[in-house]
Structure formats: C-alpha cells, structure tokens
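can u do me a favor
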C-alpha cells in the first residue's frame, strides 16, 4: 500500500503561480495529478513516467502546467503558471503502474489539496 500526501495548494490571483508537491510513502512507477471542481467530475491533469522523460497533459493545461518528479525523494511536483479561475479545484495526486492505466484508473490516491484562483 502506497500513501500519497499532497501539499502546496492555496489561494492565488489569476495569472499567478503555485507549485503542488506529492510525497509517496514508497516507490511508485507512474505518478500524476487529477482535479475536481465543484459540481464536476474528477478529470485528468498531468502524468509522468518513472524516468521523467515521458510527460502527458490535458489540453486545458498544456503550456501552463509542468509535471516533474524526484525519485530520490519519492516526490512528484506540479508547477502551475498563468492560473485561471477555471483552474479552481481540489487537486489529487495519483500513482499507478503504467501511465496509460494511471490516466484511467490509478492504483493510489492522495487526499487532495484545494487550489483557488480568484479573478
């Protein structure tokens, strides 16, 4: 069983930046981020493979968000820039086997961290 703990959420003005972090209690292969806005379904945001060479993004965040990882620290990061009010959501860290599977059905979830972007 792997536990995931997110941090770094908060309140930011539109156009600002935030960096989310997620620490895993054990080794993970693919890691990623999802988000859920009020009244909406949880959606995929970004994912990264073990080596860090392969990254994947939702169209809505391409060019604004960057996912990275530090395997020595079992940590994945999500650098969010040019934030928009529509980015407001609870952001969840996820981990799994392959990226393809993680994007659909992660094996592990974090508890979530709130990101609020004011206009």
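np, heres the sequence
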């Amino acid at each position: 069983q792997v536990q995931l703990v997110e941090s770094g959420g908060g309140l930011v003005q539109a156009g600002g930046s935030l960096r989310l972090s997620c620490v895993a209690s054990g080794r993970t292969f693919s890691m990623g981020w999802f988000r859920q806005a009020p009244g909406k379904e949880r959606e995929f945001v970004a994912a990264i493979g073990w080596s860090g060479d392969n990254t994947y993004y939702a169209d809505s965040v391409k060019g604004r968000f960057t996912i990275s990882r530090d395997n020595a620290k079992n940590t994945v990061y999500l650098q969010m820039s040019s934030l928009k009010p529509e980015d407001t959501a609870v952001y969840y860290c996820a981990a799994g086997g392959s990226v393809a599977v993680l994007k659909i059905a992660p094996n592990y979830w974090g508890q979530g961290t709130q990101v609020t972007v004011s206009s």
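Helices lie at 99-102. hope that helps!!
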